[in-house]
UniProtKB/TrEMBL annotation:
Signal peptide (UniProt feature, chain positions): none
Pfam families in the record: Oxidored_molyb
PROSITE patterns assigned: PROKAR_LIPOPROTEIN, TAT
Source organism, top-level taxon: Bacteria
Classification via CDD domains: bact_SO_family_Moco
Name of protein: Molybdopterin-binding protein
Annotated Oxidoreductase molybdopterin-binding domain residues: 95-233
Taxonomic source organism: Cognatiluteimonas sedimenti
Amino acid sequence: MAERVLLPRRRLLRGAIAGTGLGLLAGCDALSRSERFVDVLGVAEHLSMRAQRALTGNRLATEFPESMISPGFRPNGSVDPRTPEYLALKADGFSGYRLRIRGLVERPLELSLDALRALPQRTQITRHDCVEGWSVIGKWQGVPLAHLLDLARPKPAARFVVFHCFDDLGGDGSRYYESVDLLDAYHPQTIAAYKLNDAPLPIANGAPVRMRIERKLGYKQPKYVHAVELVDAYAGFGAGKGGYWEDQGYDWYGGI
Ligand SMILES: Nc1nc2c(c(=O)[nH]1)N[C@H]1C(S)=C(S)[C@@H](COP(=O)(O)O)O[C@H]1N2
Ligand SMILES: [Mo]
């Protein structure tokens, strides 16, 4: 399943490199460890994103019938956060939880789970593809991020949305984070989800609230989200690449 998802992306990347005459460089071993090669990959990544957008437009991810929901949604990465702020909220059944929308917005928001439940909802049965090579189909319910952004009113300078999470996956005191651009943030299948398969979101899958950004790979589905921050650039967060796994070298666009 992952091969089917990933191979076309590799081919697309190679195609993007070849299409710009950079293909010759890509084959050169001496360059692979140099700064220059990293630059070339950066360019290719950018072209790949534009190529993907050109090919797929802003289409919807496939949605599936109830009969195809996987028995059990395999968790991955952090499955039981131990950070103090998370443990404190969990001890109280998340009654003190607030989802914050902040940064470059006219009207910062703080929403309890009850407040989220009272907003317009979306339900979607979609397939989650992890780069490790497995996929699983689940049913998500939550509030479209587009609706939350409409309420918060992004300022003209806002270009990206950074998602801040409670968990310290790397065990170094930092926190998992992710980011997408406004086009993906406003995508109709981008939701702040608090239900999985008709039940409250389990701890292992990101309770109390995680994002579903259905045009993206698994690592761009942040769990344990406590803040959605509108920014003009994501370079100032983490190691500057736009997400926990991006900081380890994964592609920022991460499209499927
Ligand atoms: N906060 C947080 N979000 C995360 C992760 C994580 O470790 N921490 N892992 C990512 C990865 S690699 C995958 S595949 C999915 C797994 O989601 P699941 O546990 O619901 O299957 O969450 C993503 N979001
Ligand atoms: Mo993943």
